[in-house]
Amino acid sequence: MAGLNKSEFKNPVINWIDSRLPVFTMMQKEYGSFPTPRNFNYFWNFGALAMVILMIMIVTGVVLAMHYQPNAELAFDSVQRIRRDVNYGWLIQYVHMNGGSMFFIVTYIHVFRGLYYGSYKSPRELLWMLGVVILLIMMATAFMGYVLPWGQMSYWGATVITNLFSAIPLVGKSIVVWLWGGFSVDQATLNRFFSLHYLLPFVLVGVIFLHIAALHIVGSNNPLGIEPKGPQDTIPFHPYYTIKDSVGICVCLIVFAALVFFAPDFLGDPANYIPANPLQTPPEIVPEWYFLPYYAILRSVPNKLLGVVLMFGSILILFVLPWLDTSPVRSAKFRPIYKILFWLFLLVSVVLGVVGAHKPEGIWVIIGRVCTAYYFAHFLIILPILGKIERPLKLPESISKSVLGFLLAGILVSGALTGTARAADENALPHPPSQNWSFGGIFGTPDLTAARRGLQVYTEVCSACHGLKQLAYRDLAGLGLTEAQVKEIAAAATVPLGLNDVGEPVEGPALPSSRFRQPWPNEKAARAMYNGAVPPDLSVMIKARENGDNYVHALLTGYADPPAGMEMGDGMNYNKYFPGFQTAMPSPLMDDRVTYADGTKATVDQMSRDVVTFLAWASDPDVAARKSMGIRVILFLILMTGLTYAVKRKIWSDLH
Amino acid sequence: MADTSATSMTHHGPSDGKKRDFLKLITAAGAAIGTGAIAWPLIDSMNPAKDVLALSSIDVELAPIAAGQGITVMWRGKPTFVRHRTPAEIKQAAGVALAELPDPEADKTRTKSGHDEWLILIGICTHLGCIPTGNKPTEMRGEYGGWFCPCHGSQYDTSGRIRKGPAPTNLELPPYEFVSATKIKIG
Predict the structure, then answer these.
(1) What chain A residue is nearest to B29 in terms of C-alpha separation?
(2) Pairing of strands B78-84, A35-37
(3) pLDDT at residue A254, as a whole number
C-alpha cells in the first residue's frame, strides 16, 4: 500500500514522522479534539487514574525486579535488602506495595461508577466486558505479586487459593499439581508466579488498549445517561479533561503519598513479615483487603465446589450484566428505585469485605450468607425484574438542556471500601496497653539515645538466642554512632570469616560490612537447644506482630506466676500477653540486668522500652527519611492540586 | 512519567503565543519538577547498593605474607595480587631500561614510596582476562620472575609489567593506601 498519510502538522519533524506513522494524528484525534460529553463529574476521572497507577506499578515493578530474588531461600531476604540497602529501595518497594491497593481502590470506584450510571448498557456491552477481563487480570497479577515476598501470608494464601482448584471434579487434583509444579507451593511455584507477575501487566496494557479503543468507538457515557445529540453536548478532550484529570491525579497522589509515607503497612498483614514456614500455619489466613468480599462468599457456602463456583461466579456474573439489567434507562439519576438498590448493593459488598476479614464463626457466618445471597439476588432476580416494573423519572431532552450542574465527587465510596476493619480476633488475649513511643504518630522518629540503649540490651540479653540477620554492623551508623564506634561494636562480635588456606572455616572479629550473627548454626540446632522452639529473628519483629511495639513491650513486662489451676507445659513460662499464655522463652529481663553507660536506671520497664525502640528502628531504619520526604511530597502535591485546580477553573470558564 | 501526557498537553495549550499565562507556566513547571523528582530515586536505585559499597574497600594484613610470596584477595569481584618482593626482585625491576618495555613504566611509579617491597596489582591478564600464575615461588613465574599467563603465554616481570607475549599493557594497579606499616586498604 503506497502513499504517505496526509499529515496536517506544520512542524517538519513531526510531519515527517506522522506521514509515515500517524501517531500524532491519532493522539490529536483520540485525546486532542475527541468530542467528550461536557457534563462529566469527577467520577469520570477514575479510568485515567487507574492508567496512571498502572504506569507507576510497571515502572516500580521493573526496577524492583532488578533486585528481587525469586528463590524460596532468598526471596524474603531480598525484599529486606531492597528496603535497607538499595538506594531508595524502601520508597520504590512501599510505592509498589501500596500501589497495588491504590490500583484496586481506583478500579473499584471506576466499576461502581459504571454500575450507577449504566455505563455497561448498549452499546457499551463489549467495553464493559473488556473491563471485567481487566479486573480478572488485575486480580491474578495482585495474587501472584503478593506471593513473591514469601512471607507467611504469601505462602499460605497461595496454598489456600491454589488448593481451591482441587474442587474441580475429576481433574482438580492434577490441575493443582500442575499449577504448583510440585506437591505443595514451593520453589517451582514461586518462580513461575514471578514470571507471570512480570508478564500480566503488559497483557493488561494490551487489554486496556482494546478497552479504550472500544470506548472511542461508542463514546463515553455521562452522568445523565443520555447520548450526546450534537456538538453542543460535547467539548474537546483537550484541554478540558486533560486539566480536569490532572487535578484528579494530584488528589489521588496525595492519598497514595499519605499511605506510602505515613502508613505503609496499614493495609497489609503483619504475618507477612514472618518468613514463610511450610510447617506452621498462621492462626488466620486472610487475603489482602481487595479480595475480602470474594473470600467471604467462598466461605459462606458449606460445599467446597459450590463455594468456589460462587466465588468466581461473583465476578463472572458481571460479564452478563448488560443483559440482566432490563431497564431502558441508563443512569441511576432517573431510576429512583435502582438508586436505592445500588447503595444497598454497595453496602452489601462492603459488608462482605468486613465478613471476609473475620473468622467464619458466630454471627459472621449468618451475615456472610445473607449478603452472599443478596449479592446474587441483585444480579439474577432484582435487576431483570426491576427494569420491567420501575417507573423512571423524566429524562432531560439533551445534555446541554439539563439543569444539573457538575458534581464534585466525594471520596465516600473509597472511604467505605477502605474502612474494612482488619480483624484481630484475639479472643481472651488481653490488648497490650498503649505506650507513648518516640517513633509514633505522623511525625515521630525513634529517639536514638533510647535506641542505642536498646542496642545494648539486645547485645547483652537478647542476642544470646535471637538473631538480627537483616542488619549489618554498618547500619548502626543510623543510630548516631561514629564510624569508630561501629568498628568497635563490630569487632566485639565473632562471625564466620570464610575459609582458611586449607579449606577450614574460620571465625574472627566482625567487620562493619558483616551482618549480625545468628546465635545458632541452623534451625535444627535451635530446636534442640530451646525445647523445640526456634527463637525468631528480631529484625522485623515490630512489624511482624499486630500492634508490634506495644505487644513486645507488654510481652517483656508481662511475665507473672500462672493463675491457680493452670497446667503449664514442661519448661514453659506463663505470660499474660503471649498467645496461648505459655511461652518457651523465660523472662529475659530483671532490674539492673544491664548497666547503662549514661546512668539511666535499668528497670525492666526501661529496658523493655529501650529495646522496643531499638527494634522499631531496626524494623524500619529509614523511618525518619520516609516521614520527612512524605511531608515535602504531600505539601508539593497540595500545592499542585491548588495550581491545577486554578488552571482548570480558568480553562473551563470559557464554557458558559 | 505519570503526568507526561497531561502536562505536555497543558504546555501546548490553546493560548496564543503572545500572552504568557503565568499560572499555566508555573503549573507546568511544577509538574515537570515533580516528574523529574520521581526519576531520581528510580535511577539512583540502580547505583551500587549499600552492601555492595560496603565491600568496595577491603583491608589486607601484610604481616603474614613472607618475602618472595604473594597472595590473592578478592576486591570488587576481581582477583588482586599482593606480593612481598625480595630485595633481589626489587633490584631486578628497577634496573630495566624503559626502552625495553612494551608498555614503559618505571617501577617506582608502581609502588608506594617507602614501601617498594609491596606490589599490589589486579591479577587479570591484560590480553584476554585469564589469571596469571606466579604468586607462590613454586608456581610458574616466567622468564622475568613475575607472573606467567598460561592461556597465551604472556610474561610479566617483578613489577607486573608485560615483557613478552600478546598482552598489550602492564597489570593494572588498584587504588590503595597504607593505613599502618602492616595493613593496606584497597579501594
Answers:
(1) A640
(2) unpaired
(3) 98
Residue A87: which of B1, B23, B45 has the nearest Cβ?
A: B45
Kindly tell me if the per-residue pLDDT of B9 is higher than 80.
no
B66 has a chain A CB within 8 A of its CB: no
With 90 as the cut, is the pLDDT of residue A474 above it?
A: yes
Element (H, E) at A136: helix A125-147
Residue among A303, A310, A297 nearest A352 (CA): A297
Percent of chain A with pLDDT over 90: 85
| CB-based contact, B74 to chain A, within 8 Å | no
Is A288 one of the catalytic residues? yes
List the one residue out of A620, A255, A596 whose CA is nearest residue A445. Answer: A620
Size of interface A-B (CB pairs under 8 A): 96
Sequence letter at residue A591: D
Indicate if A216 belongs to the active site. yes
CB distance A357 to A292 below 8 Å: yes
Residue A402 pLDDT class (50, 70, 90 cuts): low
Give backbone dihedrals phi and psi of A559, rounded to 5 degrees, phi first: -75, 140
Contact B14 A239 (CB under 8 A): yes
- Please report where in the chains the cell 475480602 appears, as a residue: A292
Kindly state whether A640 is in contact with chain B, defined as any CB-CB distance less than 8 angstroms.
yes
pLDDT of residue A27: 94
List own/partner pairs for A509-512 with CB under 8 A and 24 or more apart: A510/A473, A511/A473, A511/A487, A512/A472, A512/A473, A512/A474, A512/A483, A512/A486, A512/A487, A512/B54
Q: The pTM is what?
A: 0.89
Chain A environment of B54 (Cβ under 8 Å): 472, 474, 512-513
Q: What is the interface pTM, i.e. ipTM, of the complex?
A: 0.86
Give me the residue label for grid cell 457499551: A124
DSSP B151: T
Q: What is the residue-averaged pLDDT of chain A?
A: 92
Q: B16 — contact with chain A (CB < 8 Å)?
A: no
Q: What is the pLDDT of residues A131-159, one digit of tens each?
A: 999 999 999 999 999 999 999 999 999 99
Which member of B14, B30, B42 has the closest CB to residue A640? B30
C-alpha A178/C-alpha A115 separation (Å) is: 37
Q: Is the pLDDT of residue A511 over 80?
A: yes
- The H or E element spanning position A651 is helix A623-652
Amino acid at A625: A
Residue B152 annotated in active site: yes
Selected for mutation to probe chain B from A644, A651, A652, A653 (highest B CB count within 10 Å) is A644
